[in-house]
Amino acid sequence: MTESRHIEVLKHILGDKGLVTEVSDMVAYETGARYDQGRAAFIARPVSTAEVSAVVAYCVKNGIALVPQSGNTGLVSGSTPDGSGQQGVLSLDRLTAPYELDRVSRTVKAGAGLRLSDLNTKLEKSGLFFPIDLGADPRLGGMVATNTGGSRFLRYGDVRRNTLGLTVVLADEAGTVLDLSSALRKNNTGIDWKQVFIGTSGAFGIVTECVLNLEPAPRQTATALLVPASPDQVPDLLVAMEDALGSYLSAFEGMSGNAVRAALDHVPSLRNPFQNGAVPDFVILVEISRSSASREGEQPLDAVLEEVLGAIWERDDAPLADAFVGPPHEIWALRHALSEGVKHMGRLIAFDLSFRRGDIMRFLERMKLEMPQAFPDITICDFGHIGDGGVHFNLVVAKDDVRMTDPHFEHALREWVFTVAVEDFGGSFSAEHALGRKNQDFYDKYTPQEIRRLAAGLKAMTSPAQLGTVDF
Amino acid sequence: MTESRHIEVLKHILGDKGLVTEVSDMVAYETGARYDQGRAAFIARPVSTAEVSAVVAYCVKNGIALVPQSGNTGLVSGSTPDGSGQQGVLSLDRLTAPYELDRVSRTVKAGAGLRLSDLNTKLEKSGLFFPIDLGADPRLGGMVATNTGGSRFLRYGDVRRNTLGLTVVLADEAGTVLDLSSALRKNNTGIDWKQVFIGTSGAFGIVTECVLNLEPAPRQTATALLVPASPDQVPDLLVAMEDALGSYLSAFEGMSGNAVRAALDHVPSLRNPFQNGAVPDFVILVEISRSSASREGEQPLDAVLEEVLGAIWERDDAPLADAFVGPPHEIWALRHALSEGVKHMGRLIAFDLSFRRGDIMRFLERMKLEMPQAFPDITICDFGHIGDGGVHFNLVVAKDDVRMTDPHFEHALREWVFTVAVEDFGGSFSAEHALGRKNQDFYDKYTPQEIRRLAAGLKAMTSPAQLGTVDF
Fold it and tell me: The FAD-binding PCMH-type domain covers which part of the protein (chains A, B) (predicted)?
């Protein structure tokens, strides 16, 4: 069977609109959000679970490797084809149905191709929302495959916590459809199989539909920027805030001065909120919020936040050097501009690490101390989610740095950072970006033999054919 | 090798205190919390993961079946030996170490033999708690194996949501120890293997240590009993409460009039909170709570609750017929007495069902209508967790009912209830009690062939030897 025969069959399964083979139309699917430029044999764009199943079955039987692609916003080369031109991309971008809201159960059943922003727009009238807050705008299937967390993890958890059910197509010769689409919140009648497909980059099956938990949307919010008295007092500040505010606290984000300055430089419309414009070395964004409607006689949240900060401020051992309560849209605009700002500083080498909450600042301090010796002329521009232990540890080198022409430089840098983060601190080398070609080496290095054996066995049982960009 | 040789080796591994073989000392371990009377070959009581591993390895090599037992508070025959006298019980009751609190990370690493109440007592000073609220007092390993939910699921979720890491011993010839004891909140570097051991009744491995998420303990609470205007307005009432209160709402429990009357009859010290003592057909317990410290000028929670109920009451289509705000300890005392009260009404046939939240009352109404025809002279004494869809659907027959001497009667009744609950309503036949000998038949009946194949494969890969009372 020749390749054009395959294309013909796939066109028959998917219809004309469902299969892209024009070189110019494939580029967007072949190009990653930040890295990667691959070459695809074709782009399959199924509109239903049945079509996904038919495509997968055909490709498995004919030895055609598939790379599932959702919003293609990932940063670890998990959703783009390699350079061979032999892999097909299976895009979820047309798989946006069904959309079934169950208001009483606070759940929605949605197609895996629906974008996060579209889901929340559709939900607006209901007073509910899907509580994953991200800079990017992924589609649901990719969110499941990477188990994204984001900036409100502290309050609402990750995609795993908010996923009740999935429909999954396995990469076997039948294109088996696993119906795990329960909308039940409590159900302990065996293995919770959907967990296997969450955070595993699509290697064990393609998510086509999700049943998601929804939360009452926040209706009152207050935010502040805090300057800790010293890095080692950040944990104390976090504990003090949680102690005073309990589940009011919906974000506790860390931002390095370097990242803040980069954002302010790159987005001139941002207001510099600091006295005399002097950006501190490290800033914390806190948000408190209520999903309840505000009631007469109730203290406004801004006042609550100011009162709590005042009490912390007056302590003898106050972990706080300064604080700026300000409008949420301004403060979040700064936070959400960090990623773009950092990208424009130079060549970016990004890490998505996580730690126990008490270890984050210790890790950052150690890096500040040791990096200049080990790898000089690198600017550390970290920011992240101290409330859940996540750090987007960004390293920037000058655009014309000759080291970047050395293919070993970046890998050596990664090895060095991961050695400290994973081996010395017990941290994770992929907090919420999951796995892809880009960090395969580190999966291989840091995964114990016994776990690799189990993963390979599970892979053979579920999707024996190659699927995605990770080798489990 | 004779049996006494086995006993000798196990004694060598575990020490004298670690192995129980006296018939009189074994009874407590052979007897279930509500059902079951088995006969054990021995009771092994290891104090460490290493001892568990050694015992398991020896037993697997010598073909001795083990039943892991934690607090032995389960209701599905998941933790007691069968009647053969050939199975050993592996009790976690001495495996209470370690206990390592990480205040900043809000996590604790604890031995699987620690009791829930002991954990929360130890935590009191820290202001944190492990937020699973149950009538029973299980040990942690069993809570993981059944993925218990309880009365505050609505706010805090189940054991799965609150488990960050596990240490597990597999039933293979090596007694392999899987170290999944990460304390990270975000970590997506492959399959989240701990999920396989949560809610699967110990069949895939024995949990010996847990790393758990802790939450700020509630410091303000208000409760009320609500009488819905009609059963079909209960969902409306739930939505109205969530809409007004957001994440303040920490419990929304349903109680049938029959169950409430049984509790009031059985525990004379309980106050009857209803006007003229007339217990309504159906009552809802709501709790709102805050983990934040109360601040000056802040409205007390009782007043918040009264205000919200007042606003619902004044609606033209008010879903509320009556409401009684009362002290939390009194109202929870009534709620927690339901289980004991119902047990004393006669012979109890208990179901642990779950539904989508909007289906619960429809299911209960249908049962009320059809049960008298299908199975006369049965009293329905349900109560449960409407906020998360769980229903403890209790059926009571008279103590001297001759039908109970017919071994097929109970099974026929179960089949009939499950047919409606699972097939007609898409519900679960085990919401939070997980699986055991008692509901094996229904696992076999309701688990799709494809899922059974995967489960059997995973069983062979992890713990190929028999472990526990469920056949996956």
Answer: 35-217
